[in-house]
Write a structure and sequence with these properties.
single chain; 332 residues; alpha/beta; TIM Barrel; eight-stranded parallel beta barrel; two-stranded antiparallel ribbon; 12 strands; 17% strand; globular
């Protein structure tokens, strides 16, 4: 497994990370706990070190699942990344974000207990709290870092101006943000800012929540809790147009002798050694497929063909529903 460094100040991690959100909360349909743990074990055996979670994934369930998976494993081989700050109600609804310093100290205390660890490797606010200056949030995180409770400070879904203000307060190792063939908005201002400041990128949604995995079926039944039914890209004519892009990409992948998912992941990885794709594999077979993307070498001709198949801006529909888009500082 090749390793990459998260920015100039962050830890060395595997060239592919495992996003664990889908293993809890049924956000992508029913999850199988035993298979999820087996998938984490298989990932670590393959050399994957970066495990990404959030304290609000299943309201703590995901952190406890990771803790169970790490029992009997070498803790030092895992780089645990945790997002915090999202508030949720008993019905699972999202209620906003809280990044006040005293709230952060509360959040990290519970995460350390649920994960059964004495430190968190990368700790990051899940979104920008509009009521708290980013300097206050990062300042509180710097205090936790100095006290040894966290090792590195990250960001998530914030724009270039916020990144600069945060980096002026304390060293930032990486930004976690959606980046894929269908979501390329960061290329305009955010990615250049990261590179100017020496901040890495962990890219989630590299398969657009399964839309460009090559496995999505328009006629498949989806559960009421599967949040993709509320995503504009999975609705009506938007879905038809996006699946047409997938079929065009499939032709490129087949000519290369790889799967659609593999060529989509390989494309994100090809964007630079400062980018670590996160894959949300919940099963070992999907993990095996994703790991195969690390062996895919894209030539200049391949990149031209991929660009022709899925041009920048070709996606139909926004990446989140309007209410969630309103919370994204990265989209402002």
């Amino acid at each position: 497994m090749r390793t990459l460094k998260l920015g100039t100040t962050g830890p060395a991690v595997s060239a592919l990370g495992l996003g664990c959100m889908g293993m809890s909360d049924d956000l992508y349909g029913p999850a199988d706990r035993a298979e999820a743990i087996a998938t984490i074990h298989a990932a670590m055996e393959a050399g994957v070190t970066l495990l990404d979670t959030g304290d609000f994934y299943g309201m703590g369930h995901n952190e406890m699942l990771i803790a169970q998976a790490l029992q009997g494993q070498d803790r030092d081989k895992a780089v645990i990344s945790v997002k915090f700050g999202a508030l949720r109600g008993p019905d699972g609804a999202f209620l906003g974000f809280d990044s006040r310093p005293k709230a952060i100290r509360n959040f990290v205390t519970y995460s350390l207990r649920r994960l059964r660890v004495d430190h968190i490797d990368v700790y990051r606010p899940s979104r920008l709290d509009p009521d708290v200056p980013i300097e206050d949030t990062i300042g509180a995180l710097a205090e936790l870092r100095d006290a040894g409770y966290i090792r590195h400070i990250g960001l998530s879904e914030v724009g270039a101006e916020t990144i600069r203000r945060a980096a002026a307060t304390a060293p930032i190792c990486d930004l976690q943000i959606e980046y894929s063939l269908l979501s390329r908005g960061i290329e305009d201002a955010i990615l250049p800012t990261l590179r100017e400041l020496g901040i890495g990128l962990t890219a989630y949604g590299v398969l657009s929540r399964g839309l460009i995995s090559g496995h999505w079926s328009k006629d498949a039944q989806r559960g009421a809790r599967d949040f993709r039914v509320y995503s504009p890209r999975f609705q009506g004519e938007n879905l038809d147009r996006n699946l047409a892009l997938v079929e065009t990409l499939r032709a490129v992948a087949e000519q290369k002798g790889v799967s659609v998912a593999q060529i989509a992941i390989a494309w994100v990885a090809s964007r630079g050694d400062d980018i670590v794709p996160l894959v949300g594999a919940r099963r070992r077979d999907r993990l095996t497929e994703a790991l195969g993307a690390l062996d895919v070498v894209l030539s200049a001709d391949d990149l031209v063909a991929i660009e022709a198949a899925v041009p920048k801006g070709a996606a139909a529909g926004e990446r989140y529903a309007a209410a969630m888009m309103a919370h994204l500082d990265s989209e402002k």
